[in-house]
Protein backbone atom coordinates (compact mmCIF):
# COMPACT_ATOMS: atom_id res chain seq x y z
CA UNK A 1 0.00 0.00 0.00
CA UNK A 2 1.19 3.51 -0.79
CA UNK A 3 0.88 6.55 1.45
CA UNK A 4 -1.02 9.33 -0.23
CA UNK A 5 -2.45 12.67 0.81
CA UNK A 6 -4.14 15.65 -0.78
CA UNK A 7 -3.22 19.31 -0.51
CA UNK A 8 -6.28 20.44 -2.46
CA UNK A 9 -8.76 19.04 -4.98
CA UNK A 10 -6.18 19.17 -7.75
CA UNK A 11 -3.04 18.29 -5.74
CA UNK A 12 -2.11 14.77 -4.67
CA UNK A 13 0.98 13.59 -2.82
CA UNK A 14 2.47 10.11 -2.73
CA UNK A 15 5.22 8.90 -0.42
CA UNK A 16 7.01 5.71 -1.45
CA UNK A 17 8.94 4.07 1.36
CA UNK A 18 9.69 0.64 -0.11
CA UNK A 19 10.95 -0.77 -3.38
CA UNK A 20 8.47 -0.34 -6.21
CA UNK A 21 7.00 -3.44 -7.79
CA UNK A 22 4.38 -3.88 -10.49
CA UNK A 23 1.54 -4.08 -7.93
CA UNK A 24 2.55 -0.80 -6.30
CA UNK A 25 2.87 0.98 -9.65
CA UNK A 26 -0.59 -0.25 -10.63
CA UNK A 27 -1.91 1.10 -7.30
CA UNK A 28 -0.35 4.52 -8.00
CA UNK A 29 -1.81 4.59 -11.51
CA UNK A 30 -5.28 3.62 -10.19
CA UNK A 31 -5.09 6.43 -7.63
CA UNK A 32 -4.16 8.91 -10.35
CA UNK A 33 -6.97 7.72 -12.65
CA UNK A 34 -9.44 8.36 -9.81
CA UNK A 35 -7.95 11.80 -9.26
CA UNK A 36 -8.35 12.59 -12.99
CA UNK A 37 -12.09 11.92 -12.58
CA UNK A 38 -12.25 14.60 -9.87
CA UNK A 39 -10.02 17.17 -11.53
CA UNK A 40 -9.13 17.44 -15.22
CA UNK A 41 -5.57 18.59 -14.42
CA UNK A 42 -3.58 17.72 -11.30
CA UNK A 43 -0.36 18.59 -9.55
CA UNK A 44 1.55 15.53 -8.34
CA UNK A 45 4.04 15.36 -5.46
CA UNK A 46 6.12 12.18 -5.22
CA UNK A 47 8.59 11.54 -2.44
CA UNK A 48 10.95 8.58 -2.65
CA UNK A 49 12.49 7.60 0.66
CA UNK A 50 16.27 6.98 0.57
CA UNK A 51 17.21 3.57 -0.76
CA UNK A 52 13.92 2.90 -2.58
CA UNK A 53 14.54 1.04 -5.82
CA UNK A 54 12.45 1.31 -8.97
CA UNK A 55 13.29 -1.20 -11.71
CA UNK A 56 13.94 0.38 -15.12
CA UNK A 57 11.04 -1.49 -16.83
CA UNK A 58 8.65 0.05 -14.29
CA UNK A 59 10.12 3.50 -14.88
CA UNK A 60 9.40 3.00 -18.57
CA UNK A 61 5.86 1.78 -17.82
CA UNK A 62 5.28 4.87 -15.67
CA UNK A 63 6.59 7.16 -18.39
CA UNK A 64 4.18 5.54 -20.88
CA UNK A 65 1.32 6.13 -18.40
CA UNK A 66 2.31 9.78 -18.08
CA UNK A 67 2.61 10.21 -21.84
CA UNK A 68 -0.84 8.67 -22.34
CA UNK A 69 -2.16 11.15 -19.80
CA UNK A 70 -0.11 14.09 -21.04
CA UNK A 71 -2.04 17.27 -20.51
CA UNK A 72 -3.60 15.95 -17.28
CA UNK A 73 -0.54 16.88 -15.22
CA UNK A 74 0.17 20.52 -14.49
CA UNK A 75 3.15 20.11 -12.15
CA UNK A 76 5.23 17.19 -10.92
CA UNK A 77 7.43 17.60 -7.85
CA UNK A 78 9.78 14.70 -7.21
CA UNK A 79 11.70 14.50 -3.95
CA UNK A 80 14.63 12.09 -4.05
CA UNK A 81 18.33 11.85 -3.41
CA UNK A 82 18.92 9.21 -6.10
CA UNK A 83 20.87 10.53 -9.08
CA UNK A 84 19.45 7.98 -11.57
CA UNK A 85 15.87 8.84 -10.65
CA UNK A 86 16.66 12.57 -10.68
CA UNK A 87 18.09 12.30 -14.22
CA UNK A 88 15.17 10.25 -15.52
CA UNK A 89 12.72 12.76 -14.07
CA UNK A 90 14.59 15.65 -15.71
CA UNK A 91 14.05 13.86 -19.03
CA UNK A 92 10.30 13.85 -18.34
CA UNK A 93 10.40 17.62 -18.21
CA UNK A 94 11.26 17.57 -21.92
CA UNK A 95 8.56 15.12 -23.03
CA UNK A 96 5.62 16.14 -20.86
CA UNK A 97 3.56 19.30 -21.02
CA UNK A 98 3.83 19.55 -17.23
CA UNK A 99 6.38 21.51 -15.22
CA UNK A 100 8.73 19.01 -13.57
CA UNK A 101 10.93 19.97 -10.63
CA UNK A 102 13.25 17.68 -8.70
CA UNK A 103 14.04 18.43 -5.06
CA UNK A 104 16.51 16.98 -2.58
CA UNK A 105 14.95 15.48 0.57
CA UNK A 106 16.12 18.42 2.68
CA UNK A 107 14.00 20.68 0.42
CA UNK A 108 10.73 18.73 0.76
CA UNK A 109 8.93 21.71 2.34
CA UNK A 110 9.93 23.87 -0.62
CA UNK A 111 8.65 21.10 -2.94
CA UNK A 112 5.30 21.01 -1.12
CA UNK A 113 4.99 24.79 -1.34
CA UNK A 114 5.84 24.75 -5.05
CA UNK A 115 3.36 21.99 -5.90
CA UNK A 116 0.58 23.69 -3.92
CA UNK A 117 0.94 27.02 -5.80
Describe the structure.
The chain has helices at 22-38, 56-68, 83-95, 108-116; strands at residues 3-8, 11-16, 42-48, 73-79, 99-103. It has 117 residues and is of the alpha/beta class. It has a single domain (3-116), classed as Transcription Regulator spoIIAA. β2 (11-16), α1 and β3 (42-48) form a beta-alpha-beta unit. It is globular.
Which terms summarize this structure?
alpha/beta; Transcription Regulator spoIIAA; five-stranded mixed sheet; 44% helix; SpoIIAA-like_sf; SpoIIAA-like; STAS_dom_sf; STAS/SEC14 domain-containing protein
In short:
The protein has 117 residues and is an alpha/beta fold.
What value does the Rg take, in angstroms? 13 Å
| Count of the separate structural domains | 1
CATH superfamily: STAS domain
Overall mean confidence score, pLDDT:
90
What's the count of strands? 5
Uncertain segments are: none
Name given to the CATH architecture:
2-Layer Sandwich
Secondary-structure-derived class: alpha/beta
Major sheet strand order: 1-2-3-4-5
Q: What proportion of the residues is helical, as a percent range?
A: 40-55%
Please give the count of helices.
4
Largest β sheet strand count, sense and barrel closure: 5 strands, mixed
- Using the alpha-carbon principal axes, give the shape: globular
CATH class bucket: Alpha Beta
Q: In angstroms, what separates the terminal alpha carbons?
A: 28 Å
Kindly estimate the percentage of residues that lie in beta strands according to DSSP: 25-35%
What name does the CATH topology carry?
Transcription Regulator spoIIAA
Order of helices and strands: EEHEHEHEH
Protein name: STAS/SEC14 domain-containing protein
InterPro entries: SpoIIAA-like (IPR021866), SpoIIAA-like_sf (IPR038396), STAS_dom_sf (IPR036513)
Organism: Antarcticibacterium arcticum
Pfam families: SpoIIAA-like
Amino acid sequence: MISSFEFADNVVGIIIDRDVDKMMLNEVHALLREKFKQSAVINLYIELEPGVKIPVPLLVKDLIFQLRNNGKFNKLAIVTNQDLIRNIMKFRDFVLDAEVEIFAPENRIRAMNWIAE
